[in-house]
Amino acid sequence: MVFLNQLLGRGGMGASADFASAQIPAIGLGAAQPSARAVDAREVRATPHLGRFLVLAAQLALLLLIFHLYHTSDKPEFLLMVNLVFGAFLIHYWLPFRFKEPFWVAVSLGGAFLLLRPRLALLLIAVGLAIFLILRSRVPYRFRVLALGLIFAVLIYGRAMGKLPMFFPVFGAIFMFRIIIYVYDLAHSKQPAQLLPFLGYFFLLPNYFFTLFPVIDFQTMRRTYYQRDIHVIAQQGIHWMTRGTIQLMLYRLVVYFNDTYLPDRVTSLGALVSTTVLTYLLYLNVSGQFHLIVGMLHLFGYDLPETNRKYLLARGLTDFWRRINIYWKDFMVKIVYFPVYFKLRKRGDLRAQVIATAAVFFATWALHSYQSFWLRGQFIPSWPDTLFWGILGLLVIANVLYEGRHKPQPQDSSWQGRALRGVQVLGTFALISNLWFLWSAPSIGAWIYLMTHWMHRG
């Protein structure tokens, strides 16, 4: 179980709990109204304070000024979205607790008509409500899932035919992954689906702009709602938005210096190394967006965990998996790893870990193609994509086997131990950079050509 604990990590979305707690939601799908005592506690945490509010508002104003001055995004809809979010917070903060979440949901639904075309927004909400009515119905669960599957089959056909090109990327960004979590939680909940939590989970205002969106866990979103004082939650959100803004600025700098797959610029080994590193650092765009998104949700009381945690300082592949895109890791652990592991562990713990880990990386590979289908209209996996996830999966499985046969050693605080950890960080960074470079290649031939092109210069 040592590797299992390391794989799950700490600070995630409940993934380190045992299988029973992962299967049975502690607060159910209607968690907006738990016990009276819990509601009272959250009302206290939502108590406004003029002085602390002004501090938060001043910081948001400064962030907004930075967005305007430095053009954090080239799309004009970004500033509209940010203004809507920040303006909604200024009102939401002062509302009575019982009106807070309905107000945020109303703003998110209304924002769809401002950030998207009105017909597109209306269609998106209509399809969402149809999905809710199916899941809310009293028919047996398996028939509800079958009906939902039929709806998705029709939508997948429409996407494959190239219909409504503006609709499907937004629909996919909202439903393609989170519906899996929601249906999974519904199967293990004693409560029926409820409209307000459903709308508050799927129709999130930033999601209309950010089609790359963290796979937020439904149970975690409900459980963490005002779990701390609102000023602490909001300040954490502003901190993460600031971090995300810095990362997006660095991303623009990386793009300026990096022209990926232009062989004529890779004329030496040093140029190849810099191109490889800069290609990996393009992920700053994703991590920066994720920090911004989750930070915005913090303003409205959702005390969600961190999305990426200093992934450039990972000291091994398991550590890297725990640090980068934490929401995806927890999604895979909940939906794939736990079910496979607990089904097979009676036949051997290490065997179950290996098979469950392999299942996670296979599902990750398949779901990334599924994501590409919704966002780009292409479902054909590339060889670089297949090799990236295959190699990474094999390396992590090798680590599973190693950890299964070796007891963990206590952390060495001597200078030798610190030096070793530094070497591990550099080695992991070099390995991931090269794998990422392969993953970003348009083809295996293009990757080989670029890796060897500099040798034939001059």
Number of helices: 21
Quote the beta fraction.
under 5%
Instruction: Report mean pLDDT, rounded to a whole number.
Output: 89
User: CA-to-CA gap between the ends?
Assistant: 54 Å
Number of strands: 0
The biggest sheet amounts to: none
Topology:
Layout: H1 2-8, H2 19-23, H3 36-45, H4 50-70, H5 76-92, H6 97-115, H7 118-136, H8 141-160, H9 167-175, H10 178-187, H11 195-202, H12 218-223, H13 230-257, H14 269-281, H15 284-298, H16 317-323, H17 326-344, H18 349-376, H19 383-405, H20 415-440, H21 444-453
Tell me what you see in this structure.
The chain is an all-alpha fold. 70% of the residues lie in helices and 0% in strands. It is built from 21 helices and no strands. The protein has helices at residues 2-8, 19-23, 36-45, 50-70, 76-92, 97-115, 118-136, 141-160, 167-175, 178-187, 195-202, 218-223, 230-257, 269-281, 284-298, 317-323, 326-344, 349-376, 383-405, 415-440, 444-453. Helix 19 (383-405) packs antiparallel against helix 20.
Primary descriptors:
458 residues; mainly alpha; 0% strand; 21 helices
Quick structural summary:
The chain is 70% helix and 0% strand. It has 21 helices and no strands. It has helices at residues 2-8, 19-23, 36-45, 50-70, 76-92, 97-115, 118-136, 141-160, 167-175, 178-187, 195-202, 218-223, 230-257, 269-281, 284-298, 317-323, 326-344, 349-376, 383-405, 415-440, 444-453.
